[in-house]
Amino acid sequence: MRAEIISIGTELLMGEIVDTNTPYLASQLSLLGIDLYFTSAVGDNADRLAGVFQRAWQRSDLILTTGGLGPTQDDITREAIAALLGEKLEVNPELKRRIEEFFARRGLEMPQSNIRQATLIPSAVAIPNPQGTAPGWWVEKEGRIIVAMPGPPGEMQFMWQNEVFPRLQKRTGAIILSRMLKTFGLSEAKVDELLSDLTSSSNPTLATYAKLDGIYLRIAAKAERPEQAREMIARREAEVRAILGDAVWGVDDETQEGVVGKLLTTKGLSLAVAESFTGGFLTNILASAPESQRYFKGGLIATTDEAKVSLGLDAGLVSGKASAEVAKAMAALARSKLGADIGIGIEGESAAEAATGMVPGTVYIAIDSEQIKIHQVQSYSGRLYQMRRRAAYYALFDLMKLLKSIS
Amino acid sequence: MRAEIISIGTELLMGEIVDTNTPYLASQLSLLGIDLYFTSAVGDNADRLAGVFQRAWQRSDLILTTGGLGPTQDDITREAIAALLGEKLEVNPELKRRIEEFFARRGLEMPQSNIRQATLIPSAVAIPNPQGTAPGWWVEKEGRIIVAMPGPPGEMQFMWQNEVFPRLQKRTGAIILSRMLKTFGLSEAKVDELLSDLTSSSNPTLATYAKLDGIYLRIAAKAERPEQAREMIARREAEVRAILGDAVWGVDDETQEGVVGKLLTTKGLSLAVAESFTGGFLTNILASAPESQRYFKGGLIATTDEAKVSLGLDAGLVSGKASAEVAKAMAALARSKLGADIGIGIEGESAAEAATGMVPGTVYIAIDSEQIKIHQVQSYSGRLYQMRRRAAYYALFDLMKLLKSIS
Q: What does pTM read for this prediction?
């Protein structure tokens, strides 16, 4: 099946709005195993839209459109499809009733212009849109399919997930399921090398993605039934985990701060942080996690030596170079000053404090608790803000390993 | 001039990469006053790319392409343009020499495959690319222009700003200059209402953009000479400033934290922060500003009442509801504990701590210094992370106003 995506709306051509629908649909099509050959964007202009539709009809089997289904005169996707197929638009009483109900639930009368959203052509069936007033269209004719969806990403994605994706999945005759494994501490090249025997497989597939908080691995399996696909994924996941071990810290929508939070809650432990090099980035990640007040006490951020001394660090210690000793003292300080069971201290230095340019740097991470005191040294090179983020995630990962090791 | 943008590369159709080049070029074309009618993306396939090029050649005067200029067999933009125009690719000795030099400066020999990047057709001139090995192409034939640029955004934008934009500006026969004014504390609707007499003007134009740190206003003027455009912008800017007053806090690439930093440095003052509601977001913004160690001492982040007491706040005070009194005590604490001239305290509460969903909330901001103690109460409704960000920018804006008022 050769697919094509058309985004419709003059606002997309002004450069003020980034079209997120197209990359979303592109990744969804690849999950379905459907080849995407073209994407395009066109304004709200009848002639130009007609040209784009004619071309798509000649070269593609599946045409997905977003936008142009609103109630105003600008919104001409319905008219363009009707003209392409030489069919006539007519008001569908059932659709009209649903749109009237949508407004009635909000205590409003349906504006007359919305009647345009209740029209269909003979080859089209309406696709429900519980998130808005514009139903989608599913059109089949001469062996080709056109799916017209609304432009607002929330409405489009809801319609796609609940209506369009399942129908297309039936056509392709296969179920594709996927699972994301999340790792930290290994480079993408290293992960590729370790998994080289597995990445050449075409089913399940294994793809890597470099993210801020580590390398992600997507396992996707195609099968006739969901349980087969799940079984294939489970087997591949076990193989990957056997190779990568502790580097795998989470799956799907888990976050490092979420995993750490769960471990702390389970063990009944609280956490506090002291940061210099990372400037509050780690504190902000932890404080932003849902319900983190249960286990996260807060952070002490000192950006100058003076401020470190004001907070209670030894003046002789901080006046020297950044060191593991300073990080250890900061971890202990965070613990005592904020009354937490575990303290993390992050201290670091970079060759230059310029915000731009690649610089080498060294970061010292210390974790302090009743039983255990550990520290780590990491050397990096990169832009300063990247190094700060990387250091914060290193600290989270170290803490996660520590928490898993204690009973 | 009717323009069209073509993005070339199979990776754009996989959904893993978002094409940022197209929206960038779209907004740049609108600055030049050139109408963009179509955008499209196509994979590295000779037949499909040929089809897209033929169509574009029929319907557009200016075709901008990104991608497909690399050294490998996948990269077929040069071949596609040559085929479209029925011209022959030949190695240009000067281009070959430049690419060899690019490698030589890095102590490397030019791989044989890079010779493809040194080819031209008779209708094309090379556009320098100091950021990479792939020169762009500027092609003129039969009254139409094709500009082929590399895909990596850094290389493309450098080439666009330094080579392509100036050449196109000469063609359109006019200079367009723009200036961004940045405001805080007014809603977009309020700004529109206050400036309604100015926004209808077609030259200079005035457009508003809602951003995290306030409403931005872009003034763009078209004229024959730069000094005329600058004069038009200056007059319009004076009118806007007369209407919006103190709400305008910066221009172009200035940031709130940068403006605050300059004011603190000029006045020789240092700053510290204590946060609860905002969880370190303000501290992180301030610590991330270039050279902020000169004036920013750090932050104390306490996310629980216990932690506030551990840091030295009065237990009776913090056990009650969030209040201006707590914010004031936090501001004073930040100042004393971190040894700063000025302290900011941010305290707040929201109806629900759920990370999703719209909730109402109230934020208390206090600023404490030798001479001045002020506090503000702000009520919002929104998602929790939006409220936190908004509260942090409110505090920065309050501090900015305070610093401007003291001598």
A: 0.75
